[in-house]
Each structure stands twice: as C-alpha cells, then as structure tokens.
C-alpha cells in the first residue's frame, strides 16, 4: 500500500515506528503493535505499528529512525506492507514453554530487542518468562555475550583492566568515588561507568555529577582513562549493552530483575574488564536479604565471569543501614571529598572502600590489599587522582567541600526517647530523601547524626533532612508523621506487626545498574 | 507541573495517555510507560506517559479520552504529577511469583486493564504469568466475573437465554448461521454475538456481514432479539467484557491463549445466557489436538459455567478438515444459505449444526434434539427465521445465494495422481484463503470438490481458489508452488519429515473468540 510520508519529529526511543490511520491499518489487515515493512527506493525497514486518528487516510507518520534510515523527504511515498512475525518471537514462545534457549536463539532475541523489532508486550513477555522460568548459566552467558555484541565497546590498549560493581541497595553508598581514585592512583586502569538512580536517592553518576561532567561520549571517556588510568562517567549514553536499557524499563514497573547478572557482566565486558570486584550488600532493607542468598549470587557471578573471561571476586558486605552519614547527591559527594581530603573520618565508608580496592590489589597478586588501599587514601594520593579525573572530565579540579550547594531548607528530627539506635529503615530513608527532592535536586538529602548502636538522649538530633524547595520538605513532614525510619530504644520490641486481614504487601524493590 | 494542553485527536484505543517532552518528563522524574496524574479543575485522570520530541517543553498532548473526561479546551493548563503505581501491579507481581489470586485482586487487575491504568508491558506480563503459572478454576471464575462487571450487559426479560460457542480452529465453520435460526425458530431466545477473524480466514461476524449489517449497538441488538428471538451480531463494538479485547492483543503476538475459558464465559454471562453449548473441534490441524485434551477443556468449561450460573454442555467434534465445501466469508454465507434453503445437501455441516442445536433442545428437556433441529431445518423454518433476522438487522430479507459476490479471479487446482484424499491441512488452507484476500476481501476463498475419503482421478479438480484481485492470486500460486494442502494417495506415507538440524518449529496457532 502506497502511503504519503509525514514526519512529526517523533523519536520513539530511536526505534522504527509508524503511525497509521485506522482504515489503512484495517485495509492492510494489521493491528496496533503489529509490524509492517516500510519500503522506499529499494531499502526496507521493519516498524512497529501505532494506530491513531490524527493521521489521515493515505498518510503514514514515520519516526525519526525511519526518516533517517530511508532518507525520506516530506511527501515522499513509501510502500507499506504487513511484515512477518520476527523469528525471535518463536524463541520467546519456547522460553514461555520452559525450554532452554540456545546461543543463536538468545542472540536473535537480543538483536530484535535492540533493533526495535519486538514490541513492548513481547519484550515484557520475555523478561517475565525469564523471571518465572529462570535462566541458567548458559543462557545468562549467552545473554551477556549478545548484549555486548549488540552495543558499542571500549577498546583500551591495556593488558589488565579492572572494574568494580555494586549490586546496590544501600543508601548513601558513595564507595565508587573513593575506590576509582585509589585504584587509578596505584597505576591500574579502571574505566568506570555508572548509572543514575532508578529507585534510589542517588546513583554514582548522580553523585559524581556534582563534582564534574559525567556525560562523556565513548571517545572522551577513552581519552580520560588513557591520561589518568580512571574515570567516573555515566554509562547511559555510551550505548554499551543497550538491550539492558530496554529490559530495565520492563523490570522496573514489574519489580523483577531476572537480568541482573547478564546486565552487570555485559557492561563490564563491553569496557574490556579483565578483573572485577562485585560488592553484594546484605541485610534487612538491602537488596539481598540473607548471606546465603548473597553467596548463591556470588557463585553465579564468578562462574559467569569465568565464562566471559572476567576474573571476578565478590565481597559480601553489611547493608542494614546507610553507608557513611549522608544520603543525596551533593551531601554524598561532599562526604566523599572530605574523606579523600582526610578532613573527616567515616569508618564504615573507608572500611568498605579499602576492602573493595584491596580485593582488586590482591587479585593483581599483591598482599595486604586493604593496607595498600588505606595508605593511598591517607597519603592524599586518591584525592590527587580524583582531582585529575575531575579536571580531565571538564570539572574544577580545585573544588572544595564547601563549594557544593546543599538545600537551603532543612528539617531537624529529634529523638523522642533515650536509648540506642536499634535499626534504620533503608527503604523509608530513601523515600524521605526522594520526597525531599533527591536525586533530581542534587542538594536534597539527609545527614545522620546517629547510626546503629549509637547512644541517643531524648531530644537530641537524630538526622536532618535538606531540601531545595520548602514544598518538598512539607511532603517529607507528611511521610514522617505516618512513619518512623529510625528506631531508638533499649531493646528490640518483640512484635513486628499484627495481621488481621489480607495485608497490603509492602515489598521494597531496588533496581539499580 | 503546570503544562499547556495540546490536542491532536490521538485516541490511544480510548485510553488516557499523555505525550510529554523529554525534559519535562525528566523534571517530573518519570519515564516512558510510567503513569502521571493529570488534574484540571478538581478532576484527576491517571494516564500512561509517552515521551516524544514532537511535543515542546511546557506542553502536554493528551489523548481524546483525557480531553473528554477533563472537558479540556485548547491551551487550558493542567497540573501533571507523578502517579503512584496502581495497586493491581502488586497483584500481578504475586501471580508472577506463583501465588493464587483472590477475587478482589483479580478484580483490581481487570479494572485497571480496562481503565488503561496498566501499560502494555504490565498487561503482557500478567497474560504471560497466567500462561506459565496457569490459572485455576477459582481464578478463572473470578476473571470471568470481573470481565463481565467491567463491561456492558445485555438485559433481556427472559427466564431462559441460550447460547452457542465454538472454541474455533476449523476452517469453513459456518455452523452458527444454521444453529441460531434453528434455535430461534423453535421459540428459544439466542442473542448471539460473534467475532471477526483474528488468525482465521473468516469469523462468524465476517460471514454474517455478507448477508446483513452486524455492527449493531446493544440497544439495536436487544430490539432484534425481542422481535424474533435471535440475532447474529458482531461483539466487537458492544463493550461486553472489554478487558478481553486488550488481553487478546497480547495473546495474539505471543501465540498463547490462557484466557480462553474466562473470555468465552464472560461474553456469554454478559448477554445473560442461562444455557450454553460449546463446540470443541478436535484433530490434527484443529486448535485442540486430542480428544483427551478436549475432555479436560470440557470439564473446566462445565464447572466454570456452573459457578457462573450458566448450564453448559460441550460437544467434542471432528475437526481434521474444513467444514462443508467452502472457506471465505461470501462462499461460506452462500453455502449456509443454500443449505437453509434445502438447495444443497452438505452432510457434515448439517450434521454438526443439528447436533449443536439438538444439544440445546435436550438441555431444555426435549427428547431427540437432533431430529427436532433437522426437522426445523428441512421444513424451511430456519430459513424463514434467518430472513427475519436479516431484515431486522437491516439487510435484504430476499437475498439469494447468487446475489453474493464471489471473486472474479480463480485458480483451479487439480490432482497430480489418482487415489483418495488422505488429509487436508487446515492451517495451510487458511493461509491460502488469507493470501487470496479472505477475510477482508469477502469474495475470496476456496471451494472444495473433494474432501477426506473421496476418490480422485489424476487431473480432476480438487479445489478452486477465488480472489478479488489477480495480484493476490499470484501470492496463492507462490504458496502452492512450495506447499501442498491436500494429500491424495493410496495410503499414508510413513515418513512425516526428517530432522537433521535444529528444526524451525512451525507451530500453528488459532486465536479466535
């Protein structure tokens, strides 16, 4: 069917998509979310169909991707015909039926996900099937490989490339801001890409952005690493393992994460990592709840790494409370900078960073990795290296902790009774920080005066919430009127809660990459 | 966030949807497929988010549904804010985890599906989870009830309302065109709604439309039934169990059908059926492959009917070849009309129609239902009743078989050898009829000269393909060059096929409602 092209600058996340009039779609025998082939001057693109009444009969609105690929001009005519179902759909159906997917099948699926040949429902069905039927290590390996092959890669001329990753879930975890400069200062190459927050109050990219630009392209990233061994950039625009960004969208709304390991490993493989340390925080309120669960994840991660040629170690770490004393991009960047400058001691943060960096040193054959890391930190070498990275990424290398802008509006929360801090509710603290504006408002967040085990007197400040807007602070007050994120007392109360009718399950879900 | 409204006549299948600029979406902290609340003058609508570059910063394009519900005018400003995840998502997650869903949970999901509060991925995940985890009879009952409650209902003042349904899969099955007038002629009320083809060469609505208008609204339908006891209308625009139309879209592209029984039963309950006969065709090339499978389905259907207050019987019927001698809307309507007029004997079609109608009579306490049906048919009472229905639905009551337009272009296919017809490939025959233009081109289809068991001489015509366009007939020729839909020989060949490498699975899938 010949249709006249209209372009409205619709980008459809870079996917080929067409918008058809209902009558034309009926004539073609195609429904919404179906696929058509769009042909112009001998070139054919497969596109997902949207049906709307705003397109007139005889016209087709094409997304920018099609515009570009077919080199179309306004009022060109294109031939639109029904496309066959992609072969990958049959493989997704096989997984729905509980069948194991082979390499070629996985690759075909991932290729079609990235190419936009599978619609939202089909991708969702695949992710759901992986969640329910589970994927074995062969499938995980094939997924990771395919995700690498369908994206860009960083080619550094280095025999050894190290990397660090946290499966996430601990608020205030600014470890990367310490580990990268410690490692790079020791002369090892660490091309670190980080993500922005999805469900948290700040991702590493959000924190780092307070100190320097993080949205480098892949060549700029390469230059920074070549000059100073390390970088801290946002992975989102680098097009490394782009399938993951599509899977994550589905995972987020369903609160499932079957692609956790393939996702981590594909991003590491894409930057050429040869050695990797994975942090698995454990505890109530963290992503991984038990040490047993963490060990099972670690086992799979190590084997998956082995198959992909990445020597991987895992550190199972304590995750039942926020790390350090700050949550929120600017507050965390400030805390990290102060620790690097030896202006503040933050024992848990320093301990974790030195364990992670130390593990990398030990993978390189060094002894007492922890001590090496601590020495680099205390000697100010890590600070110097971070300032070098900041400068190369286009930031101000002389930035001082007090230069960072913190929200003007604050709310001090005081202890209602004396005792010890018995627990800190990670999820609720994240909700509070997000209500205050984090991660979008960089100056929003929380500073803790007390953490688990600390003695508290009635009326003492437990924590202060900062916000850039008073309106947002009012939302925080509303939350705190209903719920309490920090428990103070002499001993744990025995009753957790009563269940007298079907409870509303408040399952927390942390999706971080 | 206050945004200026733009309307572009986007209907988004009647769902509330908004189109935002990327920057506004980022400022709101929302991604594509997320949900926002749109508030205007105190009224709030939840809408699914689309992010596009064709909307300028500070503007929001709203779908017609929002336009209508908020009574918006061009350049009104609306307040857009992030909406919480709907509660139903938690229930979908529970099903993903293999948990049984309770009534309130099912109802919440169905309500949100119909209300457009769940995006495509979430609906797909739900349908996928139902397919993999399966639904038990309690869940099926709750689904059917919720699907009824979230749609319109037909309220006839009749104590007994009968209905007939086929799970589908047999090409050329025009039984309904006979059963409805037979039943209505006997004085029973049968408010029959039918669907158009999804994967077949013609649905009952497509066939009936050749004889009369079928897109009546619910009041028109009611009037027809009140006047003559029966009708044959298209169910698609009646808004009976509308959730099903949304589920079907997902099921189609994934070739799964977990909602088969709730779907059938909800549509029957919505028209107030008290007695129901379900046809389950069985055989290679039919939807249900084995008699055992059919009996299991029948068992569930009967129990589901019992719970919903619909007395249900099932007939397991022979489905290994097309029914009658015609496939395609006009050819089938013609065949049905000729049989009703006793101008043609079509033993298999008549046999099946009389068994189905007879089963209904027997449910009403009559004996020898089959004979009653046959008598009504042979006495011409069913023809008279059909003409009454045609007239009341707005068609020409004097329509004759020869008035129906058949495709001008034809292709006669002759036997390449002598023997008997050993098999007819239902799926391939449907592909041929669809390639010829059916169901869209009403005059396209196939007429069979021979069926299973018939003796054939080399060179005799096996079947003729009709098409309205010679271009489409060329596509048929291409298909027939590669594949043969009818096997002629002395005995079945032993080898079905060889498998020397991973085979491309050619699973047929029939999705009909």
Q: In oligomeric terms, what are we looking at? A: homodimer
Side by side, the strands of the main sheet of chain A go 1-5-2-4-3-6
The CATH topology of the largest domain in chain A is: Pyrimidine Nucleoside Phosphorylase, Chain A, domain 2
Low-confidence regions of chain A: none
Which key phrases capture this entry?
Pyrimidine Nucleoside Phosphorylase, Chain A, domain 2; Transferase, Pyrimidine Nucleoside Phosphorylase, Chain A, domain 3; 6-stranded mixed beta barrel; 4-stranded antiparallel β-sheet; homodimer; 4 domains; Barwin-like endoglucanases; 513 residues
Layout of secondary structure:
The structure is a homodimer of 513-residue chains.
Chain A: E1 2-7, E2 17-20, H1 22-28, E3 35-40, E4 43-51, E5 59-62, H2 64-70, E6 77-82, H3 87-96, H4 103-115, H5 120-133, H6 137-149, E7 162-166, H7 176-185, E8 190-194, H8 204-211, H9 218-228, E9 230-234, H10 243-254, H11 260-270, E10 275-282, H12 291-308, E11 311-318, E12 326-327, H13 329-340, H14 347-363, H15 369-378, H16 381-392, E13 409-414, E14 419-424, H17 426-435, E15 445-448, E16 455-456, E17 461-467, H18 470-482, E18 486-489
Parallel strand pairs in A: 1-5, 2-4, 7-10, 8-9, 10-11
Antiparallel strand pairs in A: 1-6, 2-5, 3-4, 3-6, 12-15, 13-17, 14-16, 14-18, 15-17
